[in-house]
Hints:
7-stranded parallel β-sheet
Amino acid sequence: MTVPGAFDTTEFRSSNGAVFHNAAAAWKDGKTGAGQTIAIVDSGIDTATPELAGRITASRDFALSEGASRAPGDLVGGTHGTQVAMIAAGARNGTGTLGIAYDANILGLRVDSKGSCGGTCEFAPGPVAEAVRFAADNGAKVINISMTYGSAMSGMNAAVAYAVGKGAVVVIAAGNDGQESPSAFVTDIQSAGGANVIVAGSVDANGNISAFSTRAGTTRNIYLAALGQALVDPLNSGAKISGTSFSAPQISGAIALLAQEFPSMTGAELVDILLRTAHDAGAAGTDAIYGRGILDIARAMAPVGTATIAGTGNVVPLNSLSGVGSEAMGDALAGPASLETVILDEYRRAFSMDIGRGMRSATLVPRLHNALSGETRMMAGASEKASLAFTVRANGAGGVQVWSEALRLSQDDARQAQVLAARVALRLSPGTQVAFGFADSANGLAAQMRGAQSPAFFVAQDATTEEGFHADDRVSLALRRQLGPWGLTVGAESGRIVSGAPLVLDQTRGGGRTRDGMSRFGVVLDRHWGAVDMAFGASWLNENRTVLGARFSEAFGGKGADSVTLDGRVGWQFAPSWRLAGAWRESWTMARSAGLIADGSQLRSRAWSIDLSRNRVFGQSDSIALRIAQPMRVEKGQLRLDMPVSYDYATQTAGFGTRALNLAPNGREIMGELAWSGRLFAGRASASVFYRRDPGHYAQLPDDKGVALRWTTGF
């Protein structure tokens, strides 16, 4: 992991336990064990050491009642208890090593009946049980027992049960005899303490179980390994020490860090978090050697399980994107968008999370590639009362292309009727027509029925076809009625909006682009005045889940959006072979207020195009055209979010504030395309030269330019 510069010191690098277990992940957020008490039930501690100065709240020798004759401090050659205490909570003072919870308080409770634990310690049952009770009565959040005992110890069950009843966690060393299961002393403590007990085993620097370490065996469900082999000796940084005795205090220190950060959590919850977030080792899952795995403090300090937005219950996608913009939003979400909020994990721990960093802009549209890719077969037929046109994929490929160019018939048909996909049109009476489309828009049907003329381009689109997002599975219907010189067309369509990029980052989990329902209803009024034709339309778009194609995670609780769109198109045949046309689309989108999305979330979008075309350039059947256009772009607007910005553990309530997410891009795509089409040899040829500035409305992308050639023939 990356270590913050403030902690990347010689003292930290010498503390191989803290490095190995990612303790700096807690320290960087100010979690150092301050205010928490760790009881060291051991051989006593050196109360004069500067590594623990000012943080020893009590030091007592419980073995004096057994006839031991000594001072209460570990000053007569014994070092074991002092080493354990310093591994758990040695000071961050720039020298030697530092402990996992370097600001925690220490209870030094001596229980060895004779010896100094520099050699062989012996522990009397009575003092150990008394020390455990004393620790519980004096505020110890975690009780560290780095000792072994061959059999059950009288009075321990009751003492451990008493301490657990007061909320303490008991961490006990598994032992150094390399056995398959810990001794009865350990299993008795497990039985008495239940979910508040952790058994500590030892691994080496490579994460392999130490040869001397007792394995998990019958305690596998509460067994957690920590670095206990060749640990840097806190009393002599030039030496190494080994044993499960030194694994245990690292786990105790981790409990102190968690307890400081989340003071309302129970001891059982603190234990469960460490066990659930352990790095898996050995056989997959819980096993008889490594138990639950190896201590990982960074993972323990992060959200565990299903996380929700505080105060809402809405699930937060920790492994997914929180939102994807649409094509009309360009690079609006490409930079860091700060949306700090409060989330709760499965243990109702509150975390600050910037969900803006989990957003991204839509994938750039490869317009030319999609226009030319794929082999198609095109068929059409017409009579005075009916016409149909459809396209099939000639190579049998079944892949789906995002933003694929609509399947076209020949260039002549495209120029005459803008046939884009499967379509059937019927003339019910001299003044009434009806049309049905599949994978086609109602706007395209309306254009066909009024006989609209439009040049065919590879890249640049007519403004009145721009939506700012991609939709598939369209089904459309349009009805046109001629009312004197005016034509009136009403249309409707339904389809699914495809997200601009996959929402799930880990594609191995089966994630991909989402598809959400949409429907549109509209009306178009058109008329011809000699060489001038015009069409004006209005439509209403209903998005079930998206906002102008942008898709946000379920945590936002959004309910979609409504858009009102105005279209205008004017054409002028100013000379026998020359035509000038302009198209414009303006849209207003209102996100529905629901979940985190607040009132006032509005967008204004625009697209425009200008065409100049000439027929019969080199012959009777060719044409050339120039189009300058801006694809649909959000000109201004934002998503207003009512988000939790604070959390009170005492009342378990969240405080809310309003945040704004800008959805207008910095870039502005302007494209130009010069296209020619005509008969060549036994088929039809098309050629194009195009230029795109700020492609996809991305200001930082290089301009896109190219040349395209296509030749088609019938058979």
